[in-house]
Structure formats: structure tokens, C-alpha cells
């Protein structure tokens, strides 16, 4: 009989274990990257928060005054400077975070475990994003305001036959910064997001022919205050709706301009408004 499955990652930061634990827990709202699909409901989420102590909650915050929102998990271990663990409230994932002293600071290890027959509906995301997001914040937090960085209102979706290879090229040659690890060969690559400052460059798989004679279509992303009202106004103005409103983290729809170019309009994140 197959046992539980697990996945893990680690990153070393130039901060001692006790302050690293504090930064991880108290400043998670800063280092958890703002983005269209980085929340279960990006239209309402201001960020992520961790309530201290065993029994505390991990929250996707929809009301910054009260801290109310979507419960992501419940703390099961709280050992300041050493260990943090929680059980997901949305699936069967358990996360264990260890803070181990090193000569340069702290090695932060994140392990996700899924019990036999359990489901992962996003709980393992902490394993993927912590090395990039937490390390980046630990490096820059002393140099500026300790507030989350809002995403710019204009981004672009770019279509490639091999999005992962293209993402690596854009990273290595143009210097674009991956918002999360770029998938390896053979891994799913439905959404790859790079950053240019606070603007998002989103890579999608290209459909249809890939020869050099076929025009490449890119899709600007524009974040608006009220995507439902915007969709109604655009439709009434006679634009062709390419894709009706959908939601997967972001809430968005697509329309074509007079020359057939596609534009995606998405509900702005709260910190954009």
C-alpha cells in the first residue's frame, strides 16, 4: 500500500532563525506576491496573513480592518525561530516549515505532505513559491517600506509554442524576473508569469501553426475597477467578445478590437484601487 506523498523545497536567507521566523509569519502579507492567480479570489484579496500561535489561522484577507477573509489553514506547531506547521482548511495538505541556522543565516525548509487518498487543491503552493518570494523579500525588506507591492494595471499575455523554454530565454537574455519557478521540461505550463518591475508578462501556449510566416498574437491585460460593468459597456459598444467572464483567481474576459487583436480585461486587485 502506498504511503503519504510529500514534496519539499528550501532556501537560505541572510537572516538569523528567530528574525527569519518573524519575517515569514508577520510579513507574509508583504512577501506573498500580488498577482492575478496568487489568491483564491484575487478580486477581493489584499494579501495573506498568519495569526500567531497554535490554533491561529492562515487567512486570505478580504477586509484589512478586521482581518476577515478565507481561512487557508490552522496552525498546529508554533516554535518561534525553529518550526511552523499548519493543516490546510481547503484540502488535505499539511505544511511543515523549519528554520535551521547556517553560517550565513537560516535555511528555510518547506515540506508539504498529502495523506493517502488526500487531495491537493493548492495547499502545496507554499513549497513552490517560498524559495523565490520569501528570499526576494528577505533580501530587500531593509531597503524600503515594508508594504506589499501592488501589481501594475497593464500587463501582457505572450503566446509561444514552448512557453517554458521561452520563459527561460526571457529571463536569461532580457532579464525578466520569474514570479514563480519556471516549469521543467514535461511539466504543465498553463500559466508562466514573469515580472518587469511591477508589470506582469504572462506566457501561454500558442495554438495552431508555429512557422515564421504565421503572425504571433499577444494579448494585453488591463485591470479595471469593475470588470462586469466594463464587459457590459464594451458589448453594448459593439465589440466582439472573444471569451465571456471567467474566474480562476482573477476574474476576466476578452474582447477583440477592430483589427482582430485580443484584449483581456480583468478585475483589479484591491491594492490597485
Structural class: alpha+beta
Classified in CATH, the superfamily of the largest domain is START domain
| Secondary structure: helix percent | 10-25%
Mean pLDDT, rounded to whole units? 91
Percent of sequence in beta strands: 35-45%
CATH class of the largest domain: Alpha Beta
Strands side by side in the biggest sheet: 9-10-11-8-12-15-14-13
Alpha carbon gap, first and last residue: 52 Å
**Overall spatial form:** globular
Please give the number of β-strands. Answer: 15
Oligomer: single chain
Rg measurement, Å: 20 Å
Report the biggest beta sheet as strand number plus sense, adding barrel if it closes. 8 strands, mixed
The low-pLDDT segments are none
Q: Helical region count?
A: 5
Number of domains: 2
- CATH-assigned fold name of the largest domain: Alpha-D-Glucose-1,6-Bisphosphate, Chain A, domain 4
- What's the architecture of the largest domain in CATH terms? 2-Layer Sandwich
The H/E string reads: EHHEEEEEEHEHEEEEHEEE
Chain-wise SSE layout:
Elements: E1 5-13, H1 17-26, H2 28-31, E2 47-50, E3 57-61, E4 69-79, E5 83-88, E6 94-101, E7 106-114, H3 125-140, E8 154-160, H4 163-174, E9 177-178, E10 192-196, E11 199-205, E12 218-224, H5 227-236, E13 240-248, E14 250-256, E15 262-267
Parallel strand pairs: 8-11, 12-15
Antiparallel strand pairs: 1-7, 2-3, 3-4, 4-5, 5-6, 6-7, 8-12, 9-10, 10-11, 13-14, 14-15
Short description:
The protein is an alpha+beta fold.
Give an overview of the whole structure:
The protein is an alpha+beta fold. The chain has two domains: 5-143, 2-Layer Sandwich (Alpha-D-Glucose-1,6-Bisphosphate, Chain A, domain 4), CATH 3.30.530.20; 154-272, 2,3-Dihydroxybiphenyl 1,2-Dioxygenase, domain 1. Helix content is 19%, strand content 37%. The protein contains five helices and 15 strands. Strands 9-10-11-8-12-15-14-13 form an eight-stranded mixed sheet, covered by helices on one side. A seven-stranded antiparallel sheet has the order 1-7-6-5-4-3-2. The model has no long low-confidence stretch (mean pLDDT 91).
Amino acid at each position: 500500500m502506498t504511503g503519504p506523498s510529500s514534496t519539499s523545497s528550501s532556501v537560505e536567507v541572510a537572516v538569523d532563525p528567530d528574525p527569519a521566523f518573524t519575517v515569514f509569519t508577520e510579513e507574509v502579507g508583504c512577501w506573498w506576491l500580488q498577482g492575478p492567480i496568487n489568491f483564491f479570489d484575487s478580486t477581493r484579496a489584499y494579501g495573506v496573513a498568519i495569526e500567531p500561535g497554535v490554533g491561529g489561522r492562515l487567512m486570505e484577507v478580504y477586509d484589512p480592518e478586521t482581518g476577515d477573509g478565507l481561512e487557508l489553514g490552522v496552525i498546529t506547531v508554533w516554535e518561534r525561530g525553529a518550526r511552523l506547521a499548519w493543516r490546510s482548511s481547503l484540502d488535505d495538505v499539511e505544511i511543515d516549515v523549519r528554520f535551521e541556522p547556517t553560517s550565513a543565516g537560516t535555511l528555510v525548509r518547506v515540506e508539504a505532505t498529502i495523506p493517502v487518498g488526500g487531495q491537493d487543491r493548492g495547499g502545496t503552493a507554499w513549497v513552490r513559491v517560498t524559495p523565490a518570494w520569501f528570499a526576494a523579500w528577505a533580501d530587500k525588506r531593509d531597503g524600503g517600506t515594508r508594504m506589499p507591492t501592488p501589481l501594475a494595471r497593464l500587463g501582457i499575455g505572450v503566446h509561444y509554442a514552448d512557453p517554458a523554454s521561452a520563459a527561460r530565454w526571457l529571463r536569461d537574455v532580457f532579464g525578466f524576473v520569474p514570479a514563480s519557478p519556471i516549469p521543467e521540461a514535461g511539466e504543465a505550463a498553463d500559466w508562466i508569469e514573469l515580472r518587469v518591475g511591477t508589470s506582469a508578462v504572462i506566457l501561454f501556449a500558442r495554438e495552431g501553426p508555429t512557422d515564421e510566416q504565421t503572425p504571433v498574437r499577444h494579448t494585453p491585460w488591463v485591470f479595471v475597477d469593475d470588470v462586469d460593468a466594463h464587459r457590459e459597456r464594451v458589448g453594448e459598444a459593439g465589440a466582439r467578445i472573444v471569451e465571456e467572464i471567467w474566474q480562476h483567481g482573477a476574474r476576466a474576459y476578452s474582447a477583440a478590437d477592430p483589427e482582430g487583436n485580443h484584449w483581456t480585461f480583468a478585475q483589479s486587485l484591491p491594492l490597485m484601487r
